[in-house]
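haha ok so turns out i had the wrong file open the whole time. this is the CORRECT one, sorry everyone. sequence first:
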Amino acid sequence: MSAAPPEPDPPEGSGHRAGFVALVGLPGAGKSTLLNRLVGAQLAAVHRKPQTTRRRILGVARRPGLELILLDTPGIHRPRSGLGRAMMRAVSQSLGGADAALAVVDGMRPPSDRDGDLLRRLEGFSGPRVIGINKTDAAPAARLEELEGFYRERDLGPVVLLSARTGANVNGPDDSLDPGQEDCGPGSGRKSSLIGTLAERLPYSPPLYPDGQITDLPEAFFASEIVRERLLEHLHQEVPHAAAVRIESYDDSEPLVRIAASLLLDRDSQKGIVIGRGGRMLKRIGTEARGRIEKRLGRRVFLDLQVKVRQKWRDNPGILRDLGL
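then structure:
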C-alpha cells in the first residue's frame, strides 16, 4: 500500500481530532449496528431484514482526544423507485461531505459482483478510506481471510477486522486513541483497532458539536423508526419494504407525549395484513412501539396509529420529502 503523505503537526497545545466519517456498505453489512456501538446509544433501527436504513443518520461518538461524527447511510443497491434513488443520493451526499469513508463489509458473505457498486463508490472518494470487515464473531476464519485478501489487493486503505455486535476490535486499549496499532498486514500478529485507524485519518480540530449532543435528528424521527422497526419484526414478505411511517403530529409540551403517525402502504391488499384480524396486529405493533418510545423518553406516551394506502408512494416526491428523503 502506498505511503500516505506526512500529516501536518497539530496546532500548538491541541492534539484533538474531529471529523465526519461516512459509513457505507451493501445492505445487511451491519453499518447501523456499528453506529449504535460507537455512539453508545440506539440511534439507527437494526433488523435482520436488509435495507432497514432509508436516510442518513448522524451520530457523534466521543473518545479522549477524538470526536467522530458518523454518517450512517442506506445500503448500496441499484434503485428501482424514487425511494431507492433518494436513498442512493443520501450515500452520495454523505460521502461528499465526509473527511473519511468507512466501508463496512459483511464478513459472512463471499466477494461477488455486488461488491463492484461499493468499490466504485470508494474509488470515487478522494479522502482517506478504511475497510471494516464485520461479523468476526460469526464468520468462518477462511471467509474472513478471503475477504481481507480481496480488499487488500485493491489497495483502497487499511483493512480492520471487527465485530459491531460484540465490540471486538472496535476500540483501542482503554477506549483511547491507539496510534501504535496502525494497519500491520496479515500475519503480523497485531490488530489495528477501528477507532485508532479512523482517528489517524481525521484532521486536528476542536470538537464540532456541543458536549452531550449525539445526533442532529429530532425525537419524532426516532419515534417513527421505532414504529417501523416493529413493522419489520412482525410483517413478512414485501409488506415491510412497501410501508413507511409518517409522523403527523408530535406534542411533548405536556407530561404525556402525544404522537400521531400514519402507516403508509402502496396497495389495498396490504392494509388487512397490517391491521390483522380484529385489529390485533396493529394493536400489537402500537403497544410494543409505545413501550419502546416511553423507555427512550422516560415519559408516558399516547401513540395513535392510522393505516393509509397511498399508491406508488415510493415514487411520490411530496411523500418522500415528508419522510425526510
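The first helix runs from residue 31 to 39.
again sry for the mixup
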